[in-house]
Specification:
By secondary structure, this protein is an alpha+beta fold. Helix content is 22%, strand content 28%. The protein is globular and about 60 Å long.
Length: 294
């Protein structure tokens, strides 16, 4: 059996209990059950106790829109959508706390955040413009005017590490980043496009490098606000670099020794361990490289 990926949000452990979502009476019983815990979600922030999430008993939860997340460790888990998490509950961004959360809590957190982001930005029917209402435990929105049913949005994006015949890795940097910051290349999948073709297109558009073989590596929910990062390793058929000047300001080939030395000296900074990008780089490198940006 293969080992689970060593990056955040990729080892979801809770049982989503999808069969219960269509039964409002059963969801109310679950809400009232002993041990049920509620996670507030507001302004893309979550309540915390240091390096863990802070859950409330239903009786202590404020008014808000309920989302049924499922069960974890034998107890029911709900999210409650509020405008803002009270300061007394120490709200933090998942970018800040995500890398240190237990995998079970991290899975619940991104489930709740993803749905919270969707509900906040899709309050009206895209067909007729009427205000919609939640259904299926918060996993649908339905229009009372035209009967349209709307589902949570997830935007697929490819993120990839390309290597050449010399086993060098291609990393790039955006113009807006601080000097020395480099990462793997990434981009959104377009309609009618396979994931492999998206990898080839994005790398060529951004760097001018042409890609042959593409190999799937793993995926990571990324609720910023609604992406699914699909990780790949890709083999380059060409090595000449010509950055587009739009997506990328610079791109370079790095061998392992160069990357080790440049990260150790601080001349190059890599993504933090919250992102699948870091895992792709370290999987190729074969060891741990120092330095990270958040």
């Amino acid at each position: 059996m293969s080992q689970p990926p060593l990056f955040s949000f990729a080892n979801d452990a809770h049982d989503r209990r999808t069969e219960l979502r269509s039964d409002p009476d059963e969801l109310q019983r679950r809400w009232d059950a002993p041990g049920t815990a509620v996670l507030l979600v507001g302004d893309a922030r979550l309540p915390t106790n240091g390096d863990t999430l802070r859950w409330l008993a239903p009786a202590d939860a404020p008014a808000g829109e309920r989302i049924y997340l499922g069960s974890s460790d034998g107890f029911e888990r709900f999210a409650l959508l509020v405008e803002r998490v009270p300061q007394k509950l120490h709200p933090q961004s998942i970018r800040t706390i995500g890398a240190v959360l237990d995998p079970s809590e991290a899975g619940l957190a991104v489930h709740a955040l993803g749905l919270g982001n969707w509900h906040r930005t899709h309050p009206r029917c895209s067909r007729c413009g009427a205000a919609t209402v939640t259904a299926e435990g918060g996993h649908q929105r339905r229009c009372p005017e035209c009967a349209a049913v709307h589902f949570p949005r997830t935007d697929p994006a490819v993120i990839m590490l390309a290597t050449d015949d010399a086993d060098r890795a291609l990393l790039g940097r955006q113009r807006s980043w601080p000097t020395g910051r480099y990462s793997t290349l990434a981009g959104f999948v377009e309609p009618g496009e396979s994931l492999e073709d998206a990898v080839r297109r994005e790398i060529h558009e951004e760097s001018g490098v042409r890609i042959g073989d593409v190999r799937y590596a793993g995926s990571q929910p990324w609720p910023f606000p609604a992406s699914l990062m699909l990780g790949f390793f890709a083999h380059a058929d060409s090595t000449d670099i010509e950055v587009d000047g739009d997506e990328l300001e610079d791109a370079r080939w790095f061998d392992r020794e160069q990357l080790t030395e440049l990260t150790r000296s601080g001349e190059v900074a890599l993504p933090g361990r919250l992102s699948i990008s870091r895992w792709l780089i370290e999987s190729w490198h074969g060891g741990t490289v120092t330095g990270a940006w958040q």
